[in-house]
Amino acid sequence: MVRDTFTPGGDSVQNSRPEEIIPPAKDPEHRRVAAATIIGTAIEWYDYFLYAMAAALVFRQLMFNGLSPAASTIVAFLTVGISFLFRPLGAFLAGHYGDRIGRRKVLMLTLIVMGTATALIGLLPTYDTIGVASPILLITLRVIQGISAGGEWGGAVLMAVEHAPVKQRGIYGACPQIGVPAGLLLASAILAVMSQIAPGDAFLAWGWRVPFLLSFVLIGVGAWIRHSIEESPVFVEIAELAETESAPVKVLFRDHFPLVMVAALIFAGNSAVGYMTTGGYIQGYATDPDGPVGLSRDDVLWAVTGSAVTWLLFTLLAGWLSDKVGRRTSYIIGFILQFIGVLAVFPLVNTGSVTLFFVGIAFLTLGLGLTYGQQAALYAELFPASIRFSGVSISYAIGAIIGGAFAPMIAAWLVQATGTTSAVTVYLGGMTIIGLAAVLSLRDRSGIPLGPDHEAEQSVSPIRWLSRA
């Protein structure tokens, strides 16, 4: 049997060689893992994004109403960003144990922790009831969400990519990626439904709590699904060979720190733009009764729900495209389209037309999807097997801090400081260019063997200026 693979020091991905030791999984197992990663990741990110949207629509009025309206908005978005500071902690813990005890066990734990924290938010008393204890408890639960999110992504993508046939890593790796827009779609849709079931003051009184309490049910669904899948074949082989790394995080930073930062900047270029909707900024900006847009909450939530569908479709397309043209080329196409979307989104949002609002955010998701679907395969192919969980998790967490963590707060501050969204466009355009530059610095590793018997090949740096040294 022959296969496509990477040649160290070169860009070609079409060299033939014997299949690596790990046999390809059977199709039913592929489908089972793909379904489990989509559903499990969607549930995790439903929980995470639900908070971000509620920060703009609810928490600034109920938990931070001891502040002025302008300050409460900024502080509400600040709490969205604070959780990102704890995602590296989750990534360090999940990476360490994921590389030592397996991907599957870590994924079960992150799901339960995230879901429990989310459900407890739905039970929190407001500021008017218990005073300053309310925002303190809210922030504490958001920090727990951040720790869980830091460990979730790496495990999900490695389960998908390490189970996948080598020529289909992009499309299978896109499965946990589409769980992210699926989580956004689910969170937006349920909030929109509750906004109609409990309109006006009823939504602030109790309607917002229902989507959070629903997480109790979703924990059970997600845990049952994840329990049904097998451990990653790469980790199974690592364990059989007794080659688990005793201190994977230490080895990662000692030997691969530049690669971690380049990988992080790639995601930062995507996440800064993505968190305009997933972080709740555009929803809050467009529905602000004192702002220039003045759209209704229902219209905005349904428009965001629709844009999540387009984001999902283009994320899946990116995974498929990266299997055809390579991870690097597909990223270049995506960042160019994302830059165009950044230039267009706020002029369309500022028209005050719900139709043009949807067109703007939907077009933005074209580039967002095409710079996200291939990320799972790209990251998995960057790092050696023995430290791969640590590498992908920590790179993702650092990229989230640099990019998405405080993007909504920065956008809110820029608009308040300048009185216009033009400064936000410049900021997001700059982040997109940073992501593109990071991609251009890498050689394409599409098809590189992922098993532990190829550690020497995997350890050759894909960064162009380092691999020449």
TrEMBL record:
Ordered alphabetically, the record's keywords are: Cell membrane, Membrane, Transmembrane, Transmembrane helix, Transport
Extract the ranges annotated as region (Disordered).
1-26
Pfam families (UniProt xref): MFS_1 (PF07690), Sugar_tr (PF00083)
Asked if the Swiss-Prot or TrEMBL record annotates the protein with the keyword Membrane, the reply is: yes
Q: Which Gene3D superfamilies match?
A: MFS general substrate transporter like domains
Under the heading PROSITE patterns, the entry gives:
MFS (PS50850), SUGAR_TRANSPORT_1 (PS00216)
**Protein origin, superkingdom:** Bacteria
Where does this protein reside within or beyond the cell? Cell membrane
Kindly give the membrane topology term recorded for this protein: Multi-pass membrane protein
**Residues of the Major facilitator superfamily (MFS) profile domain:** 33-447
Q: Name one GO molecular function term.
A: transmembrane transporter activity
**InterPro entries for this protein:** MFS, MFS_dom, MFS_sugar_transport-like, MFS_trans_sf, Sugar_transporter_CS
Q: Which CDD domains match?
A: MFS_ShiA_like (cd17369)
The record, for SUPFAM superfamilies, names: MFS general substrate transporter (SSF103473)
Membrane-spanning residues: 70-94, 106-124, 136-159, 171-194, 206-225, 259-282, 302-322, 329-349, 355-373, 394-415, 421-442
What GO cellular-component annotations does this UniProt entry give?
A: plasma membrane
Protein name as annotated: MHS family MFS transporter
Lineage here is: Bacteria, Bacillati, Actinomycetota, Actinomycetes, Mycobacteriales
